[in-house]
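Appendix B. Chain record.
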Amino acid sequence: MKKNRRGSQLLIILIAGLLMTSCSTYREAIPQKKPAPPIEVPELGARPSPGPSPYHSHGIVLELTAKARRQMKAGELDHAFSTLERALKIDPSDPVPWNMLAEIQLKRGNMEQAEQLARKSNLLAGSDKALRGRNWLIIAEVLEGKGFSKEAEAAKRRAGN
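Structure tokens predicted for this chain:
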């Protein structure tokens, strides 16, 4: 009986080992990720082109900001605002839509919101002097409207740097 029990245990261990090895060799197809697009690095000393902002991490954001510009030129501020909100849902770290929202709020006369949106854009703009300059001009206009002439002049000076 002891021999029979040992044989049964050995058989169970052998079957368990076979099952374990057969499970470990099963491979499921793993979907391959698409390679990331190459990052364009400007040459040393190169000046930024006046073209689209380098912040558009998604092509759709570029399309949406271009659409919003057309809407703003056509006077469709509400549509442009909605378009820019969609762009920010895709990439809230892109400073261009924040700047454009500031321009819209300035045109609407919502000075406090315009100033806050321009400041938000400046926080995200990094070394983009042109964008930072546009933001500082918005801030200067708001400050002038509030009667803060000295602060407005300082903001205009910052816009020129």
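Further analysis of this model is presented in Appendix C.
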